[in-house]
User: Fold these one by one.
Assistant:
Number 1:
Amino acid sequence: MIMRTYIKDLSAHVGQEITVSVWVDVRRDQGKMVFLDLRDVTGKAQAVVLPNHTEALEVAQKLRPEWVVEVRGLVNKRPEKNIKEGVLNGDIELEVLSIVVLNEAETPAFDISTDGREIGEEVRLEKKYLDLRRARMQRNISMRHKVIKHVRAYLDGQSFLEIETPLLTNPTPEGSRSYLVPSRVHPGNFYALPQSPQQYKQLLMSAGFERYFQIAKCMRDEDTRGDRQPEFTQMDLEMSFVTREDVMKLNEGLLIDLVTKLFPEKKIQTVPFPVLTYAEAMEKYGTDKPDIRTDKEDQNLLAFCWVIDFPAFEKTTEDTVDGNGDWTFTHNPFTGVKDEFINDLMEKKNIGNIISTQYDIAMNGYEIGGGGIRLHKPEALRKVFEIMGYSDERIETNFGHMLAALASGTPPHGGIAWGLDRLLMVLLNEPNIREVMAFPKTGEGKDILMQAPSPAPEKTLKELGISVQKK
Ligand code: ASP
């Protein structure tokens, strides 16, 4: 392993000669000497190139912001009057002995020393590698890592296994369109990118793993709507032999632990989290993701609440995913119904009154997660599809594998998925989820750095047996 001396550790080296590998953050040329702010992933430090180090001074005079350099220097304690309290390296200064330029940099397209909110978003996205150098982005991305790491450790401690599920698969209904991927080997056939790992995670319960989780990429081909991204990340989990309350309790424990340990400046308004029925939430707040904060000005107040007892079905005028019934599921077809409604489901009556086992979790007016106890009996799941007007043949083709798995000895099970980006957005006081993703797409679903989506070469289309209709 290469031993680096990091900027954050310089104070520990007072009186020593060290070498740092850094970016030039700022250069202040005073003619006879040059001041440099040096930056690495851990922070910044001030360096000074004195007139007696002539070679170093000559190099320093050429340096520009964002050049990458290796600097050898002496760590000096600052005179008392120059000490900056409470600032990283406010008590030291690096006296530069020599500088090696590792790479030059063109003049940055925009200022990275600010929080970036004053810069047009498209400009930032086009040069995201540069934008990510700003302190705000470095913090967001590093907190994202810490949150994911915390979730992994917590769930590992609760006997969960992290299991990857396929990205090339068949559509799973989550109320959106799926992205299709053409198969070259099987011309005319397509994979779908998952809208969620829903079916696979239930199949993992059939497979006897009992506790699964995954930090899962989900892809949904939606018309561009506000703060959505075509691909986003879920913290997805599923558990066997549990009740609704078990899943809610586990998630509540994890969220509280996460907030307390990683965001100590935040206050959770009410613990245990309040539980509202869908009817109560709609009546009192007019939404199923209520903002129940007592002080909406307080940036550090987090008001979590659960919403339960959703209707299982709603009327639809649209053709459902592939059926033609006038009822459709409200969340996903695999969600169960409360025990007292199982007869209604089996007899396909009082459909509009059937209450599901769905639970959603809201925080400060955002839906940050949702899940449910599932239907684990094949005959019950079949009824859902029948209510939605699917033919027997359709049920078999699209969901035969799920029915067969349920019929193979699948335990009662349930789970949840958090919208990880949205949760991070609120925790990091950001206005949209793009600010907590390393490489987000625009609101119109474009990656303007990589220029995706883009037309495919004629040869590729030919191999895939695809012809594109010219508009
Ligand atoms: N698959 C669901 C979703 O993506 C979450 C769940 O029910 O566990 O919203």
Number 2:
Amino acid sequence: MPTPAPARLVVLVSGSGTTLQALLDAGRDPHYPATVVAVGADRAGIEGLARAERAGIPTFVQRLGDCRTRDEWDAALGDTVASYRPDLVVLAGFMKLVSERFLARMGGRVVNTHPALSPAFPGMHAPADALAYGVKVTGATLFLVDGGVDTGPIVAQTVVPVHDDDTVETLHERIKVAERVMLVDTVGRLAREGFTLDDRKVRFGHE
Ligand code: GAR
């Protein structure tokens, strides 16, 4: 039987792109069932885009400030993402919310990785919030994006300890190491096995 074509990933980034890099590295293995076909960003000049360019992957930038309205920005982003015919859209440190319309257009196949154990600490400052709260463990969550802020159905989670002498930076770095492993493993499983969604429960495998 011929090997199925790898799943097509469009990855959206806003920063350094170390999470993207893990997917780019995984895709170099011919047995990995997914490949990054394009990388988009909401800003130019970031290391995430440079990583894609070095890997020879097409890139695009859709800046909110270049559009008259947020709806226009969201629709233009959706047009570009859809033009790459993704099987899965991965938000990897993408610091913008996308609309329900964008999500529907992608058939609900949009995942985001968040540096906390959802439902704790949603939002932009999860490692700082976890540290300030005094939790002893935190981690990362991969979830199906819905209309809320880090509220979507959970696909996978990974746990990391919080150390007494952690700063936000050391804690976030420890989370990111575990987060990259979780992302590569889970995107591989989503590509290989598919998934079903039943009342917030995400299960691997086709129905
Ligand atoms: C990751 O920890 C990711 O979970 C987080 O940004 C980091 C991206 O790092 N995303 C969010 O906080 C989204 N709300 P990277 O740019 O090195 O991949």
